[in-house]
Amino acid sequence: MTNTSEPDRTTATRATAATTTTLPMLAGKRLLITGVVNTDSIAHATASAAIRAGAEIVLSSLGRDLDLTRETATTLGPDVDVIEADLTEPDDVASLATGLARRWEHLDGVLHAVAFAPREALSESFLDATIDPVSRAFHTSVHTYASLARMLRDLAPAAGGSLVGLDFDASKAWPVYNWMGVCKSALESANRYAARDLGKRAIRSNLIAAGPLHTRAAGAIGSFERLLDAWEHQSPMRWDPHDAEPVADTAVFLLSDLSRMITGEILHVDGGFHAMAAHLD
To answer: Is residue 104 assigned to a domain?
Structure first.
């Protein structure tokens, strides 16, 4: 016979869980987002997703893009500030770190969305490219990752933090990517070394290898349509080159404490393209 005077513990537990407020994934997190120039970028999509997930953010911008970045920041909310910084300049990186330290008592995470290659290194002959454009591509696209890793090391709280970079699968030689592909290979290696050196501070380092998206950066890639055609025919899941939100949502996960034991990793957000040897249909 059921004792009706004693409450059902399972029901009571479920009721308590249903009334418990779940905090947003990035509640209380303070993040630096680089690479926002316009709304058609993974960086902008990530900034927007991070705000929705409860984070406070600051954007950094090159001087030549400063007005555009400030205009774009207004689409994210009235309280999103922009700090001018060329991440290839040590003095600018130091000033950026000082500005963030003055604003916040700590920095929880950084999105590295910085990449550039002069045309000679990107869309002209791979073998004929000279050292100057290749060096510039490496400095902008790879060494800045280490600069941001060092900044996060110095500003992260004792609980740790998260550095997330944007990648494009560097395990293959792409028909239109040339020295930027080599830089992405170097970025993937830099990610592993950053994970090694930051781990003792409980700071994670991870990359997201995204499929091709219509962004400002993509506009500089000659024959970009060839990449889109490859995804159209080989990705097992339908890939939308106009939708950066799946990549942004993955960045939010990696910036959150839910990824607290993931580091040195490359997460592919590409509809499964990277896992297919060939399209057989």
So the answer is: yes
For the full predicted model, state whether its pTM sits above 0.85. yes
Q: Distance between CA atoms of 74 and 78, rounded to whole angstroms?
A: 6
Let me know if residue 184 belongs to a domain. yes
Phi-psi label, residue 271: left if phi above 0, alpha if psi -120 to 50, beta otherwise:
left
Q: How far apart are CA 150 and CA 143, in angstroms?
A: 11
Whichever domain contains 183, its CATH number is 3.40.50.720
The residues that are catalytic are 177, 184
Q: At 162, give phi and psi (nearest 5°).
A: -145, 130
Write out pLDDT tens, residues 138-169: 999 999 999 999 999 999 999 999 999 999 99
Residues 6+ apart with CB under 8 A from 51: 57, 76, 77, 80
Backbone phi, psi, residue 33, to 5°: -115, 120
Provide the 8-state DSSP code for 273: G
Range of the domain at 198: 24-272
Q: Is residue 40 part of a domain?
A: yes
The answer to the question of residue 217 being in a domain is yes
Spatial distance between the Cα atoms of 30 and 27, rounded to a whole number of angstroms: 9
